[in-house]
Amino acid sequence: MTKLTVLGSGREVGRSCLQLDVEGRRVLLDCGIQAGQFGRSSLPLIHEKLASSIDAVLVTHAHLDHSAALPRLLRMGFKGRIFMTLPTMALANLLWQDELSLMEREWPPEERLWGSQEMSLTLSSTTATTYHEEFQFNGLRFNFHNAGHILGSAMIEVKTPGFRLVYTGDLGSKSNHLRYWRASDIAYPDVLILESTYGGVNRRSRGDLEREFVEKARAVLENGGKVLIPVFSVGKAQELLKLLKDRWRSLPKVKVILEGMAINALKIYEQFLIYMDEGVRRAFLFNAVNPFKWEDLAFPAALGERKRLVESREPAIILAPSGMLRGGWSLWYFLHLAQNPENMVVLVGFMAEGTIGHALLNGVKQFKVRDIISGEERDVDVKAQIYHFELSTHAMHSELCNFVAQMKPEKLVLVHGTLESALKLASSVEDHAGEIIIPENGAQLDLEHRKVETVIPVKVEIPIGDKIAVVLPRGFPLLVKFNGKEKFLKAEDLYSLLKQPRSKC
Ligand SMILES: [Zn+2]
Ligand SMILES: [Zn+2]
Question: 475 and 419 in one domain?
Fold first, then answer.
């Protein structure tokens, strides 16, 4: 029996975790947390008994909503193997370390989801994979394909005889440094599990968006203000750095500050330039051009330096994690910069409910924010401009539609999106999929499929007159009147009852 159980990301963005039971094996696709929630409520629906019965976990990419519940899974008794690409492994290690220090700093010990021991055990249970190299594990075949979302991100293909499933994880949008995804290698699957974050949402062209962002930033900087851009350390930070470098001539020459974990993530990106698109690779290999760095980019080393920066009248651009103002340096800068109307806070892409970023987009102006240095809680009355830069590392509605149109799956399962966005996407792609399902968390889907190799084309020919016969497949049920009584017979039983017809294969 082939079954899919939705343990997270059903009608919600985040907490990606899907349980696939196939050929007597149990596999998890991703194991992440919900960024908008804290503690146990951020976890997918996993219990101890389930954790110990899982053979393998396949991870699409390093973002916390796809990977950060893995050490918890080990704490709950998971003893199987984990697979992810090599850059995902490097980035996940970095992001988990950050999550661990957040838990150790801010949560009482009994509330912490996992510790450093489980984290190192998770890494030692992991096998690094690469793109387009099929491998086998316990009789199942897997393949990782580029998803173009962040460095190392992959779509996962699971194959058994007569069955093929593709899970996209987060599908990328056109990026300024990553290779775009390709559907041709994985088209026509039995099941496609697709993210739907931006179902129903399209944005203006990337060029228009970038120009508008640069114009807004220029106006603030020329007026002596600061531009604070909360970013995900992995993905958005690099996309923004490349954008600023490419358009640097259109902006006043100010300092660009990169903060916290984004600095370490940048080092990993620099190690894996081979995974970038052709332009970036060639520029690096032939002209030693680093796509993300230039002379005005700085990394603050001490708290004093940061304090001087926020107190000065010197214009600057600050890129700091976390991306949704959930914690980290972005929140510290927000505390010090958001009350000044000369400054601007640029929110980039999707903001999960429950985060300050989400509240800001909905017009909330008063916040209580804890200073990560002093530990004090302070009131923030937001007077800075708030600008939503719609740049996303996720495929938008039209890109998702285009992907499904090329994939043409038998069954399409939409996850990682609100019900509203999934419904909008479903109505646009119904001509390209046999069946569309938008499951809730906890839902169990029967993915039973025909086993191609066991189908034998045996037919039964039953005459119903001198020159006419009906030809039916073996096992076909018929309602037959026999000795004045109606009863159901299989075609072959009726055939032997009549005694004279011929059977043909
Ligand atoms: Zn995600
Ligand atoms: Zn992601």
Answer: no
Cα-to-centroid distance, 377 and ligand 1 (Å): 30
The CA 14 to ligand 2 mean position distance, Å, reads: 9
Do 296 and 409 reside in the same domain of the chain?
no
Indicate which CATH number applies to the domain containing 181: 3.60.15.10
Residue 477's pLDDT is what? 73
Contact between 13 and 197 under an 8 Å Cβ cutoff? The reply is yes
416 CA → ligand 1 middle, Å: 7
d(CA 96, CA 115): 10
Distance CA 225, CA 210 (A): 20
What is the structure's pLDDT at 456?
45
Ligand closest to Cα of 14 equals 1
pLDDT digits (tens, 9 = 90+) for 121-177: 999 999 999 999 999 999 899 999 999 999 999 999 999 988 999 999 999 999 999
- β-pairing, 25-29 vs 17-22, is antiparallel
Looking at all shown ligands, the one closest to residue 234's CA atom is 2
Q: Name which of 70, 62, 86 is nearest 17 in CA terms.
A: 70
Decide: helix, strand or coil at residue 37: coil
364 and 462 share one domain? no
Residue 60 Cα to ligand 1 middle (Å): 9
CA distance 35 to 358: 12
**Which residues lie at CB < 5 A from ion ligand 2?**
63, 170
CA of 8 to the centre of ligand 1 (A): 11
CA-only gyration radius of the chain, Å: 27
Residue 224 C-beta-side C-alpha neighbours within 13 Å: 6
Measured in degrees and rounded to the nearest 5, phi and psi for residue 478 equal -130, 140
More confident residue, 491 or 121: 121
Q: What is the 194 CA–ligand 2 centroid distance (Å)?
A: 13
This prediction has a pTM of 0.84
Residue 276 lies in domain: 206-389
